[in-house]
């Protein structure tokens, strides 16, 4: 039997009181490669509608399709201020991110603080990444940054006013697949653009383009 997700273990006071979304997830529900540990491994932005009674928010991202006994934890962050209506992109991967004073990021299943990019194993099919938001009536100041998911779930019980969920999909890319064609929106190639229109910095410096093959030797 699959171990339940955090959202399935917490009963809120209200139903349907908050909406959740992320620009990292497209209209068809797929998470962009930019947020995968196979590629750029960027930290996604998350947005929600505010709950007036909330003193703080908690966000938990879990993958129940991971080949582990329990869902793989990709993100745990609590004590997000009640006045917030989202998390900025690129939040620092530290226990107490300076961009969000007062908030605490717990340990993900990879052993680090903050977002752990999507990284399903080869041949494991599509994985579902559950972004779960909880609006709380108080703060979780008693939790230390190394608190585990069980301790967090216990704290959520009886304090959750409302909750919401959005699910993003991701599958390990095929290392043998042909790269996608360049978009017309990128413009034509310059005569001296020997790197075939690789990404550039604002100063014109050529940047390394992530490859679908260079990082596939890592563990899922």
Description:
The chain is mainly β and 220 residues long. It has one helix and eight strands, in the order βββββββαβ. A hairpin with an 8-residue loop joins strand 3 and strand 4 (72-81). It is globular, with a radius of gyration of 19 Å.
At a glance:
The chain is mostly beta strands and 220 residues long.
Strands of the widest sheet, in order across it, are 6-4-3-7-8
CATH architecture: Alpha-Beta Complex
Report the biggest beta sheet as strand number plus sense, adding barrel if it closes.
5 strands, antiparallel
Superfamily (CATH H level) name = PEBP-like
**CATH C-level name:** Alpha Beta
Shape: globular
Total number of domains: 1
Based on CA atoms alone, the radius of gyration comes out at 19 Å
The strand count comes to 8
Number of helices: 1
N-to-C SSE series?
EEEEEEEHE
And the CATH topology?
Answer: Phosphatidylethanolamine-binding Protein
Q: Describe the oligomeric state of these chains in a short phrase.
A: single chain
Helix content: under 10%
| Strand residue percentage | 15-25%
Mean pLDDT: 85
Report, as a whole number of angstroms, the end-to-end distance. Answer: 22 Å
Q: Unreliable runs, pLDDT <50, ≥5 residues?
A: 183-200, 209-220
Helical/strand content category: mainly beta
List the helices and strands and how they pair.
Elements: E1 20-21, E2 46-48, E3 56-63, E4 72-81, E5 86-87, E6 104-105, E7 126-136, H1 149-156, E8 160-171
Antiparallel strand pairs: 1-2, 2-5, 3-4, 3-7, 4-6, 7-8
């Amino acid at each position: 039997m699959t171990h339940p997700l955090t959202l399935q273990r917490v009963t809120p006071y209200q139903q349907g009181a908050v909406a959740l979304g992320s620009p990292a997830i497209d209209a068809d529900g797929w998470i962009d490669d930019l947020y995968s540990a196979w590629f750029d491994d960027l930290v996604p932005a998350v947005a929600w509608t505010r709950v007036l009674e909330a003193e703080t928010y908690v966000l938990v991202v879990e993958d129940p399709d991971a080949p582990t006994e329990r869902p793989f934890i990709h993100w745990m962050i609590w004590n997000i201020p009640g006045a917030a209506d989202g998390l900025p992109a690129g939040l620092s991967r530290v226990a107490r991110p300076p961009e969000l004073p007062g908030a605490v990021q717990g340990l993900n299943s990879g052993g680090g603080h903050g977002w752990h990019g999507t990284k399903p194993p080869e041949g494991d099919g599509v994985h579902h990444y559950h972004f779960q938001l909880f609006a709380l009536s108080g703060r979780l100041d008693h939790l230390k940054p190394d608190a585990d998911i069980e301790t967090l779930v216990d704290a959520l019980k009886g304090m959750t006013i409302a909750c919401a969920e959005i699910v993003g999909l991701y599958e390990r890319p095929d290392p043998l697949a042909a790269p996608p064609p360049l978009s017309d929106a990128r413009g034509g190639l310059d005569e001296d653009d020997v790197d075939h229109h690789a990404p550039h910095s604002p100063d014109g410096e050529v940047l390394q383009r992530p490859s679908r093959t260079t990082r596939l030797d890592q563990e899922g």
